[in-house]
What we know:
Elements: H1 3-18, H2 22-30, H3 37-49, H4 53-66, H5 71-83, H6 89-108, E1 115-117, E2 126-128, H7 129-142, H8 146-157, H9 165-176, H10 196-200, E3 252-256, E4 275-281, E5 286-291, E6 294-299, E7 303-305, E8 336-337, E9 346-347, E10 357-362, E11 366-371, H11 377-388, E12 395-398, E13 408-409, H12 415-419, E14 426-433, E15 436-437, E16 440-441, E17 446-449, E18 468-474, E19 479-484, E20 487-492, E21 496-498
Parallel strand pairs: 10-14
Antiparallel strand pairs: 1-2, 3-4, 3-7, 4-5, 5-6, 8-9, 10-11, 12-13, 12-14, 15-16, 17-18, 17-21, 18-19, 19-20
Helix pairs in contact: 1-2, 2-3, 3-4, 4-5, 5-6, 6-7, 7-8, 7-9, 8-9
Amino acid sequence: MSFLDTLRQWDKAVTCVERQDLSEALRIFLSIKEPNSKICFDIGCLHLLNQSLDAAEKAFDCSIGKDEHLAVAFFQRGITFYRKKRQDTPVISIKYEESLADFQHAFKRLRGNQLIDYKALGLTYKLYACEVLHNMALAEAQLGNWEKAQENLVKALDYKTDAKLNIIDRALQSTLKQKIFKPVEFPSKVLFKPNKHYVAELEKKDYLGKAKVVASVVPQDDFSGFAPLQPQVEDGPTRPKEPEVLRALEGEPHTVLFEFVPETSDELAVVPGNIVFVLQKGADNWASVIFNERRGLVPYNYLERLEISLASKQNEGITEPPTRAPPTRPERKQGLTPSDSSGHIQRKDAQPTDNSCIVKVRFTFNFAVSVPPGSPYAILIEKISKKLNLPSTAITLSITSEATGQSVISADTEMESVWSCASGGRITLWCNTKEQIDGKPKNEIHLVALHSYESSNPEDLNFHEGDTITLLSKVNQDWLEGQCNGNTGIFPASFVEEVPVNKQ
């Protein structure tokens, strides 16, 4: 059965329940092949209304099997076990134990929250932690464990809301007298409903409408594209009026005249005929432009200012790109860099002055710092550590790309030999880091999972409660990156805690 057929049958069955036709609703539900977890839950609820406890148990088994995180399904199966009555006492005891186990599973899946609101999933119901604990206490009372029943009810007071306070208080009074109290049950005829937006799309819609014949009496009207309709009258002008010039949201439109091949990462590749939008033109004849939502630098003498109109120069045709050689590539003196996300232009590092030396540092990204000529190692490493926001002990500098014994710069290095490599007030160094997290080498931080975490996102790291995770990095205050069982990914920080050093 296709997804659309399943959705259609699901919606039809829910409608039957709203009309009080429960038998027809159950028949439609049972005709659905490969039902999802929510549909299985709905089937179980209808069986409970019909007092078909064995069938309800099987339906909730199916729902939990398809989604083991559905706390409300454990809660309903616990109610099902509680309702099962048999003549022989051992069987009744077993059913109460199974009921208690399901309520415990439901409480665990609340993960310490006061409630779960299933409205976003299509179920108008809130599962309260205090009500789950109330039913756990009831199952313990049925098993004769009155002290455990009281403990669960006292614990329920920590999760109570004002509306649920009376229920807990009455149950506590009953346990003190060792009297059985009534369970909190799921409301009847409340079912998971399919997504209303998906249901709305089930109706057939004619997006195209009826075909209309449209003919143009404008001579040589070969325009093709998105534009407002032009008046089509016999006595009208032979050419439509020139509409207003279209402008980009930012920048001025220009046509690319010559192919440009970038030589650095901040330059942008373009070919003749491309339309770019110039954000800023520098004094050195380089322009910061936008093309296909990408920003970069292009020589301005490769461009020609353009006015885009809706007429699109209908009768003029498309001009061929120039065949002559492109102009000389301008020299990058104080060039522009692509603008940031806010549209502001970012300048390159300033030219070195007489009393400073520009140190270009090659890292996972390149950056530059300015220091006085002949500065000692302490000043240089302090500047770089502030730039990287890392302690100086985690940074290794070298004169060459490979950090060998002779090329490494440290506190013992004779800095005169380093500064002798500078040319024109500039020097290039390479940087490596011993990555640290909170002052510790990252591979030395181990975490233990407080809860199991499962996600369908490919970038997430799945693990089980009690697993040990090696911390790789902090994404932000709520998410971490780690490695567990040979897999790497991100996960919520609240699901883990750091293993003390003496226990590692």
